[in-house]
Design a protein that fits this description.
alpha/beta; 8-stranded parallel beta barrel; 35% helix
Length: 339
Amino acid sequence: MDSKKDDSANIRPSRRDFLRTATGVTVVGSLAGKFAKAADSAIPYRTLGHTGEKVSMVGIGGYHLGPPSEQEAIRIVRTALDSGVNFLDNCWDYNGGESEVRMGKALRDGYRNKAFLMTKIDGRTKKAAMDQLEESLRRLQTDHIDLLQFHEVIRDTDPDRIFAVGGSLEAVLEAKKQGKLRYIGFTGHKSPDIHLKMLNTAFSHNFTFDSVQMPLNVMDAHYDSFEQKVLPVLVKHNIGVLGMKPMGDKIILSSKTVSAVECLHYAMNLPTSVVITGCDSTAILQQALDAARSFKPMGKTEVATLLAKTAPASKDGQYELYKTSHNFDGTYHNPQWLG
């Protein structure tokens, strides 16, 4: 399912004083120019769309902080930040809020200054959205979220509800004026057509999102593809691309067609600002760190070979259950979260 670091003297940003870049345009096929390595780390950094923020190529998914012990979860977050990762992902509903609580504890003792912190809310009404945001701020032990995203835009009705009078966007815009958040995005895993509706609804309201999160992996490329349908729109409008589910929550690995590192490298090879991956142990975290450090832009032949290996298994989305089932739809099973 669905991290940040810093040394004030280095390239990484502090909580409110982030380095800007004048060349934040995302360009497909020109990945090398998007990397910016921190002075004390080999983790590459990329630009988060038109925001100009520098974020680590790999980010730490918040959902997977639930299964391990609290001590191990805190160790994972702090090891990531100390190792050069700066993008942290989370959500108000992950593990009943425990993921945010654990991340909040990990961000004590100066670690908040090392993190570009993202979390998500489910609320579709102004009240539900504001209540969830306030709860997330308390759990995360911070006075602001760097990037707040509307979670699980998976229904055709979600865009209209969010942008309606009295909808959740009103709460988010108010909170932004109050300094409780800095950037606004949305996420979903169900359908690229729903993502496009969300983007077009925003454009019709003269609003452009700062980021969009979606599955980008070796199976998605073949079936009802976010990469084919949504990614070009994000690139055109210079919206930050947050790739998630590079291994389909490990389901893709069960196809026995690709390795974990191949999955990570494929997602990193796309014009992603960050690839968010779940790490439920320090060993899995190390795998993600190694993949980021060893990544080199892939040529067309290399990409074609990788996709040829996964094409037969991609039929009917059998390894993308987040698209084809309700297994990953938290708000389907808990509609009260929407408000």
